[in-house]
Amino acid sequence: MVEIPDRETCLDLLSRMSLIRRFEEEAGRQYQRAKAGGFLHLAIGEEATIVGTTSAMRDDDYLIGTYRTHGHALARGTSADAVMAEIFGREGGTSGGRGGSMHIFDLERRFMGGYGIVGGNLPLAAGLALASQYRDEDTVTVCMFGDGATNTGNFGETMNMAALWGLPVVFLVENNLYGMGTAIDRHSAVTDLSRKAEGYGIAGERIDGMDVLAVRERVAAHIDIARNEGRPTLVEAFTYRYRGHSAADPEVYREKEEVEEWREKDPLVTFAARCEDEGVLTPEDVEKIKAEADETVKAAVEFADASPEPSLESLYDELYVVSETMGWYAVDERSPEPHRGEYGEDAPALAKELAESGAAHAEDEQEEQSRPGVRS
Amino acid sequence: MVEIPDRETCLDLLSRMSLIRRFEEEAGRQYQRAKAGGFLHLAIGEEATIVGTTSAMRDDDYLIGTYRTHGHALARGTSADAVMAEIFGREGGTSGGRGGSMHIFDLERRFMGGYGIVGGNLPLAAGLALASQYRDEDTVTVCMFGDGATNTGNFGETMNMAALWGLPVVFLVENNLYGMGTAIDRHSAVTDLSRKAEGYGIAGERIDGMDVLAVRERVAAHIDIARNEGRPTLVEAFTYRYRGHSAADPEVYREKEEVEEWREKDPLVTFAARCEDEGVLTPEDVEKIKAEADETVKAAVEFADASPEPSLESLYDELYVVSETMGWYAVDERSPEPHRGEYGEDAPALAKELAESGAAHAEDEQEEQSRPGVRS
Amino acid sequence: MTPQKTAQTEEETEAKVNDDSTESKDGEVPVLRMREALRDAMAEEMRRDEDVFVMGEDVGVFQGAFKVTEGLLDEFGEKRVRDTPISENSIVGTGVGAAMAGLRPIVELMTVNFSLLAFDQIINHAAAIPYMFNGHVRVPMVIRMPGGGGHQLGPTHSHSFEALFLQIPGLLVACPSTPADGKALLKAAIRDENPVIFIEHESLYGIKGEVPEGERVQRFGEAAIRREGTDVTIVGVLKMAHVAEKAAEILEAEHGISAEVIDPRTLRPLDLDTILESVRKTNRAVVVEEGWPHGGVGANLSTLITEQAFDYLDAPIQRVTGADVPMPYSKRLEQAAIPHEENVVEAVLATTEGAFGNRKDRS
Amino acid sequence: MTPQKTAQTEEETEAKVNDDSTESKDGEVPVLRMREALRDAMAEEMRRDEDVFVMGEDVGVFQGAFKVTEGLLDEFGEKRVRDTPISENSIVGTGVGAAMAGLRPIVELMTVNFSLLAFDQIINHAAAIPYMFNGHVRVPMVIRMPGGGGHQLGPTHSHSFEALFLQIPGLLVACPSTPADGKALLKAAIRDENPVIFIEHESLYGIKGEVPEGERVQRFGEAAIRREGTDVTIVGVLKMAHVAEKAAEILEAEHGISAEVIDPRTLRPLDLDTILESVRKTNRAVVVEEGWPHGGVGANLSTLITEQAFDYLDAPIQRVTGADVPMPYSKRLEQAAIPHEENVVEAVLATTEGAFGNRKDRS
Ligand SMILES: Cc1ncc(C[n+]2csc(CCOP(=O)(O)OP(=O)(O)O)c2C)c(N)n1
Ligand SMILES: Cc1ncc(C[n+]2csc(CCOP(=O)(O)OP(=O)(O)O)c2C)c(N)n1
Ligand SMILES: [Mg+2]
Ligand SMILES: [Mg+2]
Fold first, then answer.
1. For residues D286 and D319, is the Cβ–Cβ distance under 8 A?
2. Residue D12 in this model has a pLDDT that exceeds 60
3. What are phi and psi of D340, to 5 degrees?
4. Which of B144, B208, C48, D142 is the most exposed place for a label (fewest CB within 10 A)?
5. What is the DSSP letter of C298?
6. CB-facing half-sphere around the CA of A179: CA atoms within 13 A
7. Considering CB atoms only, which of A153, A164, A195 is closest to B199?
8. Does the CB atom of residue A68 touch ligand 1 within 6 A?
9. Is there a contact between A156 and B156 (Cβ–Cβ < 8 Å)?
10. Would you say the ipTM is above 0.90?
């Protein structure tokens, strides 16, 4: 077992994990209230993997992840306000409401994005790492993705290129045992994912993704290899999501007992208990951390609620950079009669009707579910 | 060393290899005479890998390959006439001149195609094997591709699916040490390609692709695994192409000495020598085989030359099957004024001019090269 | 959906799947949701033909990301309802290979957005193979995929790719807008010898409609006239067929304009005749689509109509399209980027400008 | 090309690459082939900006499948001229990531045909990222790729995908037809902050043309009038710009018809104004492209022109397109599937039917 670090570090780790937990719970609640749209993928259960990883990174290292990355941004220091506002689709969001829950982004903290396409972030990570190498910088890129992503074509392609070019990148699989509703042994021929890149010349290690200290220590070691040996590695963090794949997942594919078993390894509970057991934190510390997380998340909801909707005039903003020496880009400008909605919240009745009737779970007989949602 | 088989078998193996060799040489010559267009990828040097493999297959097994597969079709028994005519783009070709050199096809002999897209044939092979499994047939699919193809996304995706589903397929890498002009250690982090699918649960073996008997024996063993254990494997045949990647390759990426070294392992010469040494074949046998190959190839050129160009009226044939219960498909029919060429050989001057000037090697200063060609 | 509820639903489904006449009483036409109609089409064809099977991400145990394959695993088992890894290009490629060997795969891509990863297998393989090998082999497969915006799925998850697929010779492209068409077109697609891109709309899965029972197979290349009219022809695709109908109602009620609404149902082949006949009568046309304006379905249709019926047109054809941006997540921006019936009405008024005045009292 | 010859060529190239004024004598404008012009654009920009680098299959040691990157490895070394494995989606994705970190990658896809494997990174990543992240990050990269038919490369290797790419908001699309434009547009593309799809034509690599030296940077969205005329406007893209010019000569010589020929040079943005101005003058238009007829460049242009200049059109716009088939290998069939100047002449005669008679003697 990894030795417990100093009080400051423990406070920091627990605070970040608690913030993520509370944030995700609240995001789920707000989604049920239809404050957020689209898909909502929560990382509850995976906090140790996230925080252990980010705590091993330098501020100038790059992090890149998936559509389940509210927590990753928070762990990097992005304000809960901005993440919640993004989920609400508001101007105050990390991307002004353009990206939504699946596409959180914070350049300042070098969180290079959440991405909706499974496996899509792997080559991007290679590119970020290539930039570090190209410029002789000693920054490292950490690329996080799910077990399901190891089956994508990008996985093999990117592993090979990263190994071939000795790119400073740590590939970290958040193996939560399921890709959506498909259990790992039903989607991957080899379930020991740490071995999966050996054929591409990338050594791997499986670590306990429920133990924040283990994650922190081992990821630090892998970052060190990337930074100092210029060699990519693959880390498989064994973890679990307590919630469904997304907000509207009936979870027919797993047994309640399995979830219960994993709940006993709850990364927050076990870490807090250990900190208390070893006398590094007091029960009051832990309570205080929770209370602060509550506060922060409550404030975030208020911020997001108060943040304005993006203006209709902003629809085309930022699509292109129009430089002086270049021609015009606003293609629509010259396209005649682009008759389309300018209605926003006041969208006409049918559109609303269709949107609602179309949502996979907007079965009218299912009154108990208060909001329509789609599953994936 | 594998024990030498009976005289019949040796005659058969050597005949097929000789036919391929002679065919390829002649195809190259005809290409220089502009009888063929497009790209021409010759397999000279790789005959043992091809013939060793096909000789281990049953007639009802499926074979699928790349754009370098004149020889594969010939080895399966497709007539040299039809392959040559396809290369000439004539009606008598395997696909009536539609596919050309890169896209040879012979359903009857279960040669399921050459494919121009690197890695594109891997999932197709999985699908063929799935069909065997689905129908409880004990047919096996052999899928051949180059070292460069192991870097494609399809490689990882398909290995995983084949292993996961226990598909009866043998993946066979024709490792000729180069993907076009890129040496294997410059394109693949792991150069022991037989190991490359271990991470996907597929065991591999490297074999001597220059020794037809070794190939035959080992591929037979792998086919056996696929057929009787329902398990895919990966075979890496170590081989070499003596010619350039395609007909117009200046080969700046390798040393003449390297080519010379490999020429000493010439699969035809070494096998013929061994057959003679061990007294299975006489020098006259070998001469006769060569003479027959010469004959066959000569006849093939004559056949191809005599075979008519496809008629202009056939341009839209076979694009769709129009079934009784279905609507019409000839989209062009209803598209007004599809003004385009109906000129064929008599293509107007500019088109010809452009086509010629555009070819990568149609540098007018390079008179020694009698025909324009493109490199890849 | 709660777990308890799910169990229930599965039982109900089971019943439906096993006996598709249960809902028909006293000669009444059963009313189904789009997803049920599509599921029934697959189930019926799978019962009819052993070679038909379904393959895709989460189509089995999970019952489909949008529940379209619900119940199929239970009835047909793992061999014929195959969950796959997340490997879009190879899933499609495996389907192509299986089809070449004579099976009839229905490949589900979880959404059109992920089809981008399979474009090589779709275009360079599925579409090209029959022609390239001179008809010696066929690729009888269906690639189903839902798309479209309206759910705040953001820039990577809201595409409308009808206009990409309709370009490709060798493919057929279907885009049903009603449960009845969904079922009948999918049955046709499964029986067809050609590779079919079958585009569904995520927002239409829940709509209900009468679905005649049994063997109705809808020929490709036959448009449906959703509403007859005399003043203007509105062509709408997928969800936009509904938006067009709604617009027609408004036009009738508020402007006295009689609009004919046409749903092409398949974009390749395209039933241009039906559209032309209508335009020759109305002399005006509006095309409504959810996709991007450049090179879209509307651009194609507008060109085809203008070429064939130039002399009949009293005004240039109007297009109503999605905005020329990746779909923003924000609800307000997303709604602004998607066409609504008001936009269609505007477009119709633009094309009929001054021609009819407010003819509300006319009829 | 023989090995000996190659060595020689490399030396020559070296000279050119290192001093691009060598060919200019006495104020004469140097004449270069398209591939040389493109190579010079890259070399000059790489000299100017350390962040510019080239990456792709066989761009280094092999000197490029079509020799476009010839000499670059020698001058700039392996760090900046990077041979890659055959991994199209990840090559593009790596470029996107590097661009997000501030580098300026030029990614070469060996041909457009293989871009199908990279559509996800191109559309869901390169094009979407700047908008999706609200401009907080940019993707300043160029994706170069040659395409087109005419070399008997068959059904998987002869695509024209201009019409696919022009649909996508977030991308810029260039398609140069002359060496001068090739160089100036590529320089612009490299300096641009937006992701650029840079489509070259395999048949144009060998054409020669005057290429003004130095810093000429061609703004995107400015069409070129290749030939002035009064009776009909012909718009041609890539190789078809040349076919259009040739057709104009025939029209002048044999039919007394004065055709204005326009090369849009970029399809996104599109300089519709220049085209409209011409059409308002000529009242007739023909669009020539090599791609498929449905949803093509021509369909898009025809619609845009008709919408904006309906009242100026004396006849429906004619399109000349490639045939609606995967490109057959057979030379005869391939030539039949590709537009030639005669087809353009026919189309022009159709659109001017009876209007001018044979005006050969008129001017
Ligand atoms: C390329 C692609 N295919 C399919 C999807 C739909 N999808 C979203 S998440 C998901 C499962 C991913 O599983 P995993 O990689 O294990 O990540 P997790 O959700 O468990 O964190 C799928 C199939 C997608 N977003 N992208
Ligand atoms: C997807 C794709 N990318 C690039 C190419 C261009 N290309 C044709 S052959 C080739 C090299 C392939 O090397 P390898 O797989 O080793 O096969 P070999 O030619 O050596 O038999 C390349 C890059 C292609 N045909 N398909
Ligand atoms: Mg997972
Ligand atoms: Mg090779």
1. yes
2. no
3. -125, 170
4. C48
5. H
6. 29
7. A195
8. yes
9. yes
10. yes
